[in-house]
Amino acid sequence: MNIRTFGASALTLVFALGFGVASASALSVSCSGTPAISSITWVATTTDGVAPIALLWGNGSTSTSQTILYSPGTYAMTIQATDASSTVATSTCSAVVQAPPTITSFTASPVSITSGQSSILTWSVSNASSTSINNGVGVVSGTSTVVSPTVTTTYTLSALSPAGTTTASATVTVNATSTGGSSTLAQQIQALLQQIRALQQQIAQLIANQFGFGTTTPPIIPPGQFGKAVCISLSRNIGVGDSGDDVKKIQELLTENGFATPATGYFGPMTARSMKHFQERSGIASSTASNGYVGPLTRGFFERACGKGLSKHSESSEAESSEDKRENSTSNIRSGKSDKANTGNGNNGKRSNGSRDDD
After folding, report:
1. What's the pLDDT score for residue 346?
2. Sheet of strand 144-147: strand arrangement
3. For residues 106 and 209, what is the distance between their CA atoms, to the nearest angstrom?
């Protein structure tokens, strides 16, 4: 009787174990990596399977979690899990260790000013998600900003990222305004000039942020310029009927700035219309005064876009104004000659033998 009871119990246990193994879900394993400033913590997680479960990381570790030191970069780790039924599951995870922010330079120019003057803080930062300066400046973008401290001030630039914070300092020394007639006037003039230079730098930075220009040497950007930089140097005034390589450069410039114009090298009515629209948009001339003629004002606009002044013959404001007043009449005369030349044989050597933009 006891033998029969034992046999039945053993049989029941075998069936129970068999049922338990058969009903267990398949083993699975996953892992994750959490980066810090110079390390990654790897964690493994298993589900289902038959206990006990053994873990084996790609680096030989058998623990559930591990922390490893790394230099900046992207890293991957594999994890293998094996349960009591010899079922094996594997997984791979990755994580990125970011480089901390780097401040290559942080300077003030000038480092010493008189009360009422301004100084430009300039910096070069990489691997930062945000930058800020203390002493009332706040969060900054770009590569420079203008400050006008009333007392000697040390500014601290903070560059932040998930990998940490890096700081650098620059001091602006403020000297008291001296007294004395001519000396005081000279200092006031220098203070105004310094403020103008600081504002030019600030404007150049804003334009650089908007259009992608460089600001190593702050460009002199003409008022009213909303499109691309329009740097071109012309040695003569140009109107309808003229031709040459300089005309072709103008046509290419117009096309790059949104006024499609065939680059034929001949300045015809189509080029004049495109130039008229360009002058109006750039603030060179109003819609009523603009006629497409490239005179001293337009040439000066191009020269200033190159960081230069006006051409020598245009340096006199009176000469420029007088020439500008004649642009309408000169353009009309040229236009009339051009229309006649279209049916004749030449235009005083100015007409191109090739195709024209108004053919």
Report:
1. 39
2. 102-109, 119-126, 144-147
3. 19
- Which pLDDT tens digit goes with each residue over 200-210? 777 766 666 65
For the chain, how many residues are written? 359
* pLDDT tens, residue by residue, 119-134: 999 999 988 989 999 9
Backbone angles phi, psi at 100, to 5 degrees: -65, 160
Q: What is the pTM assigned to this prediction? A: 0.41
Closest CA to 43 of 102, 97, 118, 93: 93
Residue 243 and residue 230 share a domain = yes
The domain containing residue 308 runs over which residues?
Answer: 220-359
Q: How many domains does the chain have?
A: 3
Q: Mean pLDDT score of the chain, rounded to an integer?
A: 76
Contact 90, 30 (CB under 8 A): no
Q: Give the CATH number, domain containing residue 203.
A: 2.60.40.10
Mean pLDDT of 137-143: 91
Q: What is the CATH number of the domain that holds 329?
A: 1.10.101.10
